[in-house]
Specification:
6-stranded mixed sheet, 1 helix, elongated, 131 residues
């Protein structure tokens, strides 16, 4: 019985040590980009940190970035090669307004709002993008 208990304790100790040595698992960042209260399509959302990850928004202004390593990232938005002014709608970091911290294996929703004064080439009287 003592041998079984000893083996059991050793196995638990090995499992505990091995779980502490695992590298952080990647997380996911997803959300919506809006411009003038409408979803913004074809906006490139970029996170720059230990690595750089980009995704272009699709219908509904949605973007999703999977397998994002844990760490701090600077967010940026661009449209047709031009950087945009924006705010992160649901993330209050006054001292670092464009920094996003990704935790281990987390799911992070970050919605972006493009500054109303940006010229996206949209007709204000129409819901469609100008050609």
């Amino acid at each position: 019985m003592k041998k079984i208990l000893t083996v059991f304790v050793v196995v638990l100790a090995v499992l505990a040590v091995s779980s502490c040595n695992k590298a952080p698992r990647p997380g996911e960042v997803h959300g919506i980009v809006n411009y003038r209260d409408r979803p913004a399509v074809d906006v490139v959302v970029t996170l720059t940190g230990a690595t750089t990850i980009s995704f272009t928004t699709v219908v509904g202004g949605y973007y999703v970035m999977r397998d994002v390593p844990a760490g701090d990232y600077e967010a940026s938005l661009s449209f047709r090669g031009r950087d945009l002014n924006f705010e992160i709608e649901n993330y209050e970091k006054a001292e670092y307004p464009y920094r996003i911290t990704i935790g281990d294996n987390g799911y992070h929703v970050r919605n972006f709002v493009i500054d109303y004064n940006e010229d996206m080439g949209w007709d204000d009287d129409d819901d469609d993008e100008e050609e």
